[in-house]
User: Which sequence fits this backbone?
């Protein structure tokens, strides 16, 4: 690519000036404010166009800075350049809105108008690369550490043929910004809340299982049967108690209280009955009064004694009448004995009658007792009945005691069942409460679902962004490593030459950090002298240019770039450029140093002198 | 004997809770039983079969009372009811002490039990869920008794965790009618003897199509079954073709033409086609344009893929596209998104770089 001509209609302080360019070195010399930098800028904007900025940022942009004070409606110029046998003539008018351009392409004998984006610019030559490689400005901007980094992304695309300037750094930054925005939209509370709800639901499930409530029906039935049982037993006991009372009261009325007494009386009655019956059988048939027998026994005593006397006399007399008297004695004695027994029985019977009468008076009052055996029998029967009443009472009392015990037991059971039923009831209420709580939690969980889903989606987006970032980063590194080695090599060669062999070379690390290498040591640019650091960057940029356009001579612009260079260094650089660089070299300077050095070195050059708006050719 | 067969009313459920029409949906679900009962009265239905999931969750006593208060309104319809997985019985639950009106027969047994209706020479068989899950094939191996009576099987299930069954197995069992519940979309065998009515009101935006119940007639010699629409609301799938020229306002206008505005329909929207790469369709924004439940954006950015294919192999964009076009199928979605994210970032970086220098 070669610039052949530039005509400025009006641009900054330049007005109606024409510049013709040749191959080799062109020295553009002028004092400060003579328009060197303006021309430098004009060349770039005539090539790439100039957009009018807007707003605050535009206050001091390229457009504003170079807007002519006088006749601002004339703002623009023309540029002619050649590449691979094609001639391009560009006219640009920055005064019109938007800035207008008129571009002609001449191939051989044919000329046609083309659009700005159709200009056959060298591959990869974008404004960015132009400013960062071909165009060297005042030192400082060129020495900024950021350059290497900025170049990195462009280097990544260097070997491509595309015209894009994909900025990997900016792309990564975009992605990081996007990631941040996505991460911000994630609701960090949603997952913890969801987990908490799940935990609470599990807890509720456990509580629900332990809450009673299953044997309600059975309990109720048990309580009901017990109730009925208690009722039945109570009724039974009541009637038993009443009956006992009634019978006991009846006995009491007769003054019968002591069962053992009754028992004794019963035994007496039985004896009486027996005795009286015997008496009645043996003696009661006679109608004679008992007194008769007493008298008889006394009366019989006389013959007895008489007979006894006769018998004794008879025996003494020889016993002629003894059988007679003996027999009489025996008879009378027997009668006497029998009489005595009878008298005994009579008296016993009397006593018996008395006792019987007394007992009858107690138990069966109301009639005059005769003291007969049958009366004794009646008494016996009666007393037997009384005794059976006693037995009944005892039996019933035992029964009542038993019933009472049963009832006490049952009501105790009933009470505990009632307690269980009650706790069961509260358990039921609790159960309902638990279900209600569960529902509330389930509602909450449901309400969380959309947020969780959204979070999940955002996380997927973030995963995608992360994948994009890692992929892009990896790719840019591999692309760079393809490029890095030749770059380091080329830069090393240039650096060695322009430093006269003082340094061994240049090293560029993964992060595009530049080092100078001397005696196998890496030296950071900040540790170098200002001149050496400049040389390092210069070598790097020249190497980049070489690798960017290996087959095409590109114009180079040095705009007061050598302030840090001493004489020797500048000479070495100029010599290197003449010997190794095939493209045009434009040197913008306000000093005589460059010119002197060029002459001393015998390097041919053209000189354009800018002086207060006038053009001078040498 | 005229009957209505319904299921899955899910009383207590509130569909689309976070949407403006959520209230009217909740109302529709809440009032479904009442409206169904009015139909039973109008049509003089003899038997109402409810094949489970009458309630969305195990009911409380008050919910049971509410439902029973509606059953009482039935003029001469008997109701046979089972509990499904959603409203299953559990120890100490509200069902335990609850007595339904005499015209309601709740088969609460976990084992197959029956309710006889001698007046129609009919026996209804069924069982209730006593747990949320019931993965046993409980309907396999059943047989309708051959006693000259009509036999209806009332059952709830149909997926792997809820009484799985096979239709051809059921068909062999000799039921006069199998009244199923559980799945929310209606289904019917060819001979109409086995039917799944679905929920009378759609309960979720995935339940598209008409919703209603089955109405039939079963006598000793006769069987008829008809579908009756019930819900006046439905969810529909709608897809839009997006072109690179489609703007958001164009989409808005299109939706304005194609969406019903009377609240009788809510749509699941799918965006298809190629969109302007600069444009993203914000689903939240789209959802506000009408009764739209779900927005699925399947559009792809309209990049000049063909042109890019001609780029040199070592070009970063080309390499980036290549790097993300292969990989596991599982991560396909993420990869595709990453592809677009990266392309967009790269392309926008290009513009920034250019304009910065020119200013």
Assistant:
């Amino acid at each position: 690519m070669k610039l052949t001509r530039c005509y400025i209609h009006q641009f900054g302080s330049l007005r109606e000036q024409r510049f013709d360019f040749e191959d080799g070195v062109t020295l553009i010399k002028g004092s400060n404010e003579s328009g060197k930098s303006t021309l430098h800028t004009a060349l770039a904007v005539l090539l790439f166009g100039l957009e009018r900025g807007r707003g605050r940022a535009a206050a001091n942009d390229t457009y504003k800075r170079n807007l002519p004070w006088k006749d601002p409606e004339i703002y623009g110029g023309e540029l002619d350049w050649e590449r691979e046998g094609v001639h391009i003539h560009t006219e640009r008018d920055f005064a019109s809105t938007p800035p207008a351009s008129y571009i002609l392409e001449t191939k051989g004998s044919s000329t046609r108008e083309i659009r700005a984006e159709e200009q056959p610019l060298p591959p990869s030559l974008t404004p960015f690369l132009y400013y960062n490689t071909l165009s060297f400005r005042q030192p400082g901007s060129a020495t900024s550490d950021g350059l290497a980094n900025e170049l990195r992304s462009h280097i990544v695309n260097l070997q491509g043929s595309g015209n894009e300037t994909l900025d990997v750094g900016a792309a990564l930054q975009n992605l990081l910004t996007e990631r941040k925005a996505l991460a911000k939209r994630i609701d960090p509370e949603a997952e913890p809340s969801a987990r908490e709800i799940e935990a609470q639901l599990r807890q509720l499930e456990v509580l629900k299982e332990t809450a009673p409530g299953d044997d309600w029906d059975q309990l109720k039935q048990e309580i009901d049967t017990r109730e009925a049982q208690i009722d039945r037993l109570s009724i039974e006991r009541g009637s038993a108690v009443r009956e006992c009372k009634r019978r006991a009261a009846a006995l009491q009325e007769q003054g019968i209280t002591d069962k053992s007494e009754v028992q004794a009386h019963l035994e007496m009655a039985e004896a009486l009955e027996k005795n009286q019956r015997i008496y009645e059988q043996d003696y009661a048939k006679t109608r004679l009064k008992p007194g008769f027998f007493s008298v008889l026994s006394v009366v019989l005593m006389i013959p007895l004694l008489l007979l006894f006397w006769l018998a004794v006399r008879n025996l003494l007399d020889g016993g002629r009448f003894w059988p007679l008297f003996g027999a009489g004695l025996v008879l009378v004695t027997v009668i006497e004995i029998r009489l005595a027994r009878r008298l005994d029985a009579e008296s016993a019977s009397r006593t018996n009658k008395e006792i019987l009468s007394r007992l009858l008076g107690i138990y069966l009052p109301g009639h005059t007792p005769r003291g007969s055996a049958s009366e004794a029998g009646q008494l016996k029967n009666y007393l037997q009945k009384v005794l059976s009443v006693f037995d009944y009472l005892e039996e019933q009392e035992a029964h009542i005691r038993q019933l009472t015990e049963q009832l006490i037991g049952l009501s105790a059971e009933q009470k505990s069942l009632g307690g269980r039923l009650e706790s069961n009831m509260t358990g039921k209420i609790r159960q309902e409460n638990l279900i209600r709580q569960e529902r509330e939690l389930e509602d909450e969980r449901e309400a969380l679902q959309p947020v969780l889903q959204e979070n999940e989606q955002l996380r997927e987006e973030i995963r995608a962004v992360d994948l994009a970032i890692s992929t892009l980063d990896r790719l840019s590194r591999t692309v760079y490593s393809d490029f890095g080695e030749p770059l380091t090599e080329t830069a090393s060669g240039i650096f060695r030459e322009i430093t006269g062999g003082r340094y061994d070379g240049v090293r560029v690390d993964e992060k595009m950090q530049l080092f100078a290498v001397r005696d196998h040591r890496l030296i950071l640019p900040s540790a170098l002298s200002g001149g050496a650091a400049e040389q390092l960057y210069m070598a790097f940029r020249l190497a980049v240019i070489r690798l960017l356009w290996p087959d095409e001579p590109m114009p180079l612009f040095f705009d007061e770039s050598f302030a840090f260079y001493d004489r020797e260094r500048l000479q070495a650089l100029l010599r290197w450029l003449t010997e190794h660089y095939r493209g045009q070299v434009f040197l913008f300077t306000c000093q005589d140093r460059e010119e002197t050095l060029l002459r001393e070195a015998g390097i041919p050059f053209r000189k354009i002198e800018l002086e207060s708006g006038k053009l001078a050719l040498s | 004997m005229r009957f209505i067969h319904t299921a899955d009313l899910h009383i207590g459920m509130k569909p689309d809770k976070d949407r403006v029409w959520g209230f009217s949906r909740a109302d529709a679900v809440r009032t479904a039983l009442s409206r169904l009962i009015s139909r039973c009265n109008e049509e003089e239905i003899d038997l109402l079969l409810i094949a489970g999931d009458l309630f969305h969750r195990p009911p409380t006593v008050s919910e049971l009372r509410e439902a029973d208060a509606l059953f009482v309104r039935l003029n001469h319809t008997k109701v046979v009811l089972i509990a499904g997985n959603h409203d299953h019985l559990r120890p100490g639950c509200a069902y335990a002490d609850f007595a339904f009106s005499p015209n309601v027969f709740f088969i609460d047994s976990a084992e197959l039990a029956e309710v006889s209706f001698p007046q129609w020479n009919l026996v209804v068989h069924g069982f209730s869920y006593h747990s949320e899950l019931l993965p046993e094939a409980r309907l396999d191996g059943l047989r309708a008794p051959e006693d000259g009576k009509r036999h209806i099987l009332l059952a709830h299930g149909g997926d792997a965790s809820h009484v799985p069954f096979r239709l051809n197995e059921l068909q062999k069992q000799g039921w006069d009618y199998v009244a199923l519940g559980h799945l929310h979309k209606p289904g019917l065998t060819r001979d109409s003897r086995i039917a799944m009515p679905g929920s009378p009101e759609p309960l979720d935006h995935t339940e598209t199509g008409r919703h209603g119940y089955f109405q039939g007639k079963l006598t000793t010699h006769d069987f008829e079954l008809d579908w009756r629409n019930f819900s006046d609301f439905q969810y529909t799938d709608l897809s839009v073709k997006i072109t690179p020229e489609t703007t958001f306002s164009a989409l808005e206008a299109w939706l304005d033409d194609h969406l019903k505005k009377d609240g009788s329909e809510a749509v699941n929207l799918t965006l298809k086609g190629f969109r302007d790469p600069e444009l993203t369709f914000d689903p939240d924004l789209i959802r506000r344009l009408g009764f739209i439940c779900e927005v699925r954006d399947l559009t792809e950015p309209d990049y000049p893929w063909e042109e890019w294919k001609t780029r040199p192999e070592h070009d970063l964009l080309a390499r980036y596209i290549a790097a993300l076009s292969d990989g596991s199928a599982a991560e396909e979605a993420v990869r595709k998104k990453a592809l677009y994210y990266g392309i967009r970032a790269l392309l926008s970086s290009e513009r920034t770089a250019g304009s910065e220098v020119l200013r």
Notes: Chain B touches chain A through 48 residues (CB under 8 Å). The helical segments of chain B are 22-42, 61-71, 167-171, 248-258, 283-287, 305-309, 316-325, 332-358.
